[in-house]
Structure prediction request, 480 residues.
Amino acid sequence: MTDESHLENDGAPEHETPLDEGAQPSAGPTPLHSETPPLHSETPPLHSETPPLHSETPPLDGAPSLADASSAENVRHPRRRRLIGALIIVVVLAAIGGGFWAWSAVSESRYQAASATLQSQLADETAAVHAYDAQLAYSNSLALRIRTVVDRPEFAADTSAEAGALGHDLTILEPLAQAPAATAPAPAPETAPASASASASASASAQSDSSTQAGTVADSGYRPPWQLTTDSEQLENLDRQSQQTTNQLRTATTDAKTATDTLIAGEAAYFSATAQSAEQLIAANALSNRSAQVALIQLIDQARNPSMSLSRNGAFLGSIIDAEAQVRSSQATNQSQQDDPAWAVRREIEAYARSLSNGVALEFVWAPEVSGLGDGWLSGTAQTFDSDGGYAIISLNYSVEDAWTDGLNETDDHALVAHEVGHTQIYRCAKLFANASFAQNQERWATAWSISQGFDVGGSGIEAYGRPTDEQIALAAQCR
Prediction:
């Protein structure tokens, strides 16, 4: 380095050093290599000669130096940034967790509400199904019954307004009544709960169907909100479908009930008109036998009785038609006999008996023998009925007709007829007949009643049953 210094110095231009104005110039030039040491020997390197600032300048009054403050600041900033970053992460995670929890809570609440609503709605639908099926069964039964009436030829020939209305009402109900029955709704679906983790879900999906189903039944684990939302939407859709079905069933039930009530009213009106027509028939055929009239009267009562409406079918209408025919036939027979002179005596005997009966309807049967007694014997019987206004059927043998005007047994003949009419008064004078003196003996009562009519002869019953006491005769005489 010395040689280099010489070369450098030798090659460098000489410099004059300015002096102060009072300074003395030197005696002569001083060679550089002898008088001025090389720079490198006089000036040590900075790194070895100049100590660091912090070692050269001690802190003042105990305050930290700028270097120390800068270093501490550099240390604190990363820590703060890390703390802030951590806090941000915690806040974000808390927000996400809170939002997820809120979503889960809302989804669970929605699912529970949808499930409860669907269960209630399905109960309503089930009730609507039962009501519809019950109405359908009743309406169909009614339609089938009325159809048997409408299909009768006598109905087809009926031109009354009531018959026309009944046929029209039936055509409205029948299509409704023949509709298929409703079916009860299926139970609400049981949604399989989701697994608590994705790995468990993936593992479950890899199992066989039977294993998966078994796990579904047994597992009651956590369901994520998205699955709850999907399940809720499914339940809500089923609820809407059930509401629609329920409304349709209720409408169909109302329609069927309205048509049914209309047909019931039409049926009642038709049979009421039929009953009125039958009563007019009886009034127009007064000569018909009372037994024939009573059969028709009983059917008339049935036609008007609402509690017996279930029996009013085609066969019932046929019974009314047949009973009316019997009344007409009886009227025709009795009318022909009344107009025939050969039956004049019988008509006279019957008229006499009716004159004694105090309004009790009498029907007569003539036969060669009555109670096994025929020619040469006066014989008769009486069957008394307290129903249907009270009536009696008196049977007389031909001998009564023969003796009526023979001049020999005429009195006994009249007494016998009075005796039979006496039997018909038992129900009309029930309190008198109930007197202990008669002891419920109808023959003693009939004999006493005939005697009270002025026939104190053998034909009154004395010959057959003995004479009653005067007390009994007096009691029977009160029955007028």
Q: What stands out?
A: Confidence is low (pLDDT under 50) at residues 1-61, 192-220.
